[in-house]
């Protein structure tokens, strides 16, 4: 018994243990993602997965994205990341010597290339990270007790960081978040409003702000200047800013794309002054076309302890290995290769500037053309009688409503132009941006894109050709906008919708009978009408493009009319829209009411037929209704009863008698159907001429053409000419009769006059037929 009990307990324990193991495996396998289950995957499958993630699935539509031109220098930079991971496995002594050599070489090369003598370098992946470290260094330098007392020192004397109004967006917020400072520690310095560039810092106003902060007990800490603003590439007057910073003991930091020109032989004085600043941030990756290369912040400071506390230097070998990709790429390119790439980008910008100066209706916004490799341009056109171009206004709030409306129109057209150029010339690397004063503009910055996209001089020429090809469309559309607005406003049933974001001729909405003008909600009936209207307009096969979408600031449907490449008859376009929409509304209303009309018509027909049967019963009598007696009576005295019925006229919506049909054996209608809505004017279109196109000749020319064709037809009918058809009138009385014939009324088509004394030469007799209102 004991042996059997032991075996039974063992069997139960084994079963329970297997169950727990199976449940455990199920739980574990359910928690682990699919790619990690099992014994792993091979390298081919992993690389295939990476490729699918990079390029997308085959079912997805390919997206037109910019493809980087990764040359050999790019492969060298990418190789640096793999070598960095391999080098980190070396022993500590070899790793320390190698990383120190890489860091010192790269720092020396960059300082020599960009003319920043005796500087140190900090390599970082985030471009703004270097400036945040510089701010920490400035805080530690100006606040000696900051390490001990911390925030209490800053509370007693708040630091102030000065940023230009033209600085890149989000820079001030990023610095406050990284440094733990409140937003009042930032001071936004406005740009010039009266003299100089509108994208350069106002130095006089800056000095006034610094004096005010000192009087309030604050500490001016750091000033961020621009050598090429993020928007239009303008350079601040760095020389004067440096003097101001030395006067008030402020740290001067410079950043911008124009710092790349320091590597060239000729450098403008405004950019060359940046070599005297306390620190600067360089981005050699996009300048030289190097992917995954860190940005560099060069600075000058004598205290290594403070730089270590601020995070600008590090004892970790991994931090020093950040410079390895750039160390390899700089050696591969050499000084000539570096200068050649930067010079090529500057030549591209100059080439575009010179070409755009010759193009009408294109305004270049960069004023300092010699020192800025950035080209910013926009389309503008001053219409007759309109306000001047809004880009010339210094204060947009003071502009009149006409200028504001004209600016919105130009902004929409410039946005369209930028998007079109980006699609047609992807190697140009264009960017569409919205400036506060000028409005929507297109920017060409080859220093940031040429090395990556492989932009060449042919691409610039293609870009200029595309701009010239789009100008007729832009000018024609802008001229037709106001005419379209006036025509729509003057047309009953149409509402002009002012959409500042639409670049086409305009937006129009049809107001149907039950349209609630005060409501902003979706209108199903209006959407149905506009959908049918869109279908009808697209069937016309005109050069205009039509689309339907929600109204600006509401959910109601509208018809959006696209760009016009040629002269468009706006009156015909608006009239066609109004007539077609009205016809669609009437047809839809007829279909909706058809069921109710037919039902009421059937009921009325039944009532009338029942009344007719009662009248027939009274006329024939009761005896004729008895089967046998009625047959005998009808045989002796037949009744001539007429066929009476009813027909329902769908056009008129009324009942009519069928007596006319049985009598005359013809089915007719007594009511004429209403005419189809049509325009007030019927335009004669030449063969092959598309809708909404203006004729080459006016209405006078058309009437002249009709007269000429009518004369040619008369000459074909009478080829002999008027001399051969001349009449001999021998009798004065006959001549008087002819004059009386000409005075007859227009009611008769022809009048016949017989007179033996009116003869043609060589004819015995003449029967004269005189058509009224024609030439005798």
TrEMBL record:
Transmembrane segments: none annotated. It holds the Pfam family Pyridoxal_deC. Belongs to the group II decarboxylase family. This is Pyridoxal-dependent decarboxylase domain-containing protein 1. The keyword Acyltransferase does not apply. Its cofactor is pyridoxal 5'-phosphate. Residues 15-25, 710-720 have a biased composition (Basic and acidic residues). Keywords: Decarboxylase, Lyase, Pyridoxal phosphate. Residues 484-589 form the PDXDC1-like third domain. Residues 372-478 form the PDXDC1/PDXD2 second domain. Residues 15-37, 667-776 are annotated as: Disordered.
């Amino acid at each position: 018994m004991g042996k059997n009990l032991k075996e039974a307990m063992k069997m139960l324990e084994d079963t329970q243990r297997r169950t727990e193991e199976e449940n455990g495996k199920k739980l574990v396998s359910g928690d682990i993602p699919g790619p990690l289950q099992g014994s792993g995957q091979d390298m081919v499958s992993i690389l295939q997965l990476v490729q699918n993630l990079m390029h997308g699935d085959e079912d997805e539509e390919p997206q037109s994205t910019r493809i980087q031109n990764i040359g050999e220098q790019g492969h060298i930079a990418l190789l640096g990341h793999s070598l960095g991971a391999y080098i980190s496995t070396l022993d500590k002594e070899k790793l320390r010597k190698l990383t120190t050599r890489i860091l010192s070489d790269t720092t020396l090369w960059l300082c020599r290339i960009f003319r920043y003598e005796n500087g140190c370098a900090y390599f970082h992946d985030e471009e703004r990270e270097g400036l945040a470290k510089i701010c920490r260094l400035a805080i530690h330098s100006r606040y000696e007790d900051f390490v001990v007392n911390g925030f209490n020192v800053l509370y007693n004397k708040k630091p102030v960081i000065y940023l230009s109004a033209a600085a890149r967006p989000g820079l001030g917020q990023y610095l406050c978040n990284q440094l733990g400072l409140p937003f009042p520690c930032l001071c936004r310095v406005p740009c010039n409003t009266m003299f100089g560039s509108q994208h350069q810092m106002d130095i006089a106003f800056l000095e006034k702000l610094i004096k005010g902060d000192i009087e309030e007990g604050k500490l001016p800490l750091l000033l961020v200047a621009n050598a090429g603003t993020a928007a239009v590439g303008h350079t601040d007057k760095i020389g004067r800013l440096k003097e101001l910073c030395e006067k008030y003991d402020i740290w001067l930091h410079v950043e911008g794309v124009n710092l790349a020109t320091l590597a060239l032989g000729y450098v403008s004085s405004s950019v060359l002054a940046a070599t005297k600043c306390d620190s600067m941030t360089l981005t050699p990756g996009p300048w030289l076309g190097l992917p995954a290369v860190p940005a560099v912040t060069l600075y000058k400071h004598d205290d290594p302890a403070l730089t270590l506390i601020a995070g600008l230097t590090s004892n970790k070998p991994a931090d020093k290995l950040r410079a390895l990709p750039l160390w390899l790429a700089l050696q591969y390119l050499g000084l000539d290769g570096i200068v050649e790439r930067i010079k090529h980008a500057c030549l591209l910008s100059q080439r575009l500037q010179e070409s755009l100066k010759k193009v009408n209706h294109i305004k270049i916004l960069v004023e300092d053309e010699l020192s800025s490799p950035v080209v910013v341009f926009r389309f503008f056109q001053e219409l007759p009688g309109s306000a001047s171009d809004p880009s010339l206004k210094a204060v947009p709030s003071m502009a009149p409503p006409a200028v504001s409306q004209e600016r919105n129109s130009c902004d929409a057209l410039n946005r369209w132009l930028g998007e079109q150029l980006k699609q047609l010339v992807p190697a140009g690397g264009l960017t569409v941006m919205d400036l506060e004063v000028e409005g929507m503009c297109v920017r060409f910055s080859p220093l940031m894109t040429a090395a990556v996209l492989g932009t060449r001089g042919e691409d610039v020429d293609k870009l200029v050709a595309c701009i010239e090809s789009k100008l007729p469309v832009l000018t024609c559309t802008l001229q037709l906008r106001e005419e379209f607005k006036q025509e729509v406003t003057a047309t009953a049933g149409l509402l002009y919708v002012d959409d500042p974001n639409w670049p086409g001729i305009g937006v129009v909405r049809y107001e149907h009978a039950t349209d609630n003008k005060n409501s902003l909600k979706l209108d199903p009936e209006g959407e149905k009408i506009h959908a049918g209207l869109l279908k009808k307009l697209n069937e016309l096969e005109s050069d205009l493009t039509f689309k339907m979408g929600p109204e600006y600031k509401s959910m109601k449907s509208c018809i959006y009319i696209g760009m016009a490449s040629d002269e468009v008859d706006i009156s015909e376009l608006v009239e066609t829209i109004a007539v077609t929409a009205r016809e669609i509304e009437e047809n839809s209303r007829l279909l909706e009411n058809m069921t109710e009309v037919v039902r009421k018509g059937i009921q009325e027909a039944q009532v009338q037929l029942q009344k007719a049967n009662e009248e027939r019963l009274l006329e024939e009598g009761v005896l004729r209704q008895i089967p046998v007696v009625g047959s005998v009576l009808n045989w002796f005295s037949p009744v001539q009863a007429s066929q009476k019925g009813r027909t329902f006229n769908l056009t008129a919506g009324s009942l009519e008698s069928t007596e006319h049909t049985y009598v005359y054996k013809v089915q007719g209608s007594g009511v004429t159907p209403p005419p189809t809505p049509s325009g007030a004017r019927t335009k004669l279109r030449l063969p092959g001429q598309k809708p909404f196109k203006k004729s080459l000749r006016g209405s006078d020319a058309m009437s002249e053409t009709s007269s000429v064709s009518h004369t040619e037809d008369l000459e074909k009918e009478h080829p002999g000419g008027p001399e051969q058809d001349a009449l001999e009138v021998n009798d004065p009385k006959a001549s008087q009769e002819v004059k009386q014939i000409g005075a007859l009324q227009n009611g008769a088509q022809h009048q016949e006059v017989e007179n033996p004394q009116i003869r043609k030469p060589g004819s015995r007799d003449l029967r004269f037929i005189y058509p009224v209102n024609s030439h005798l």
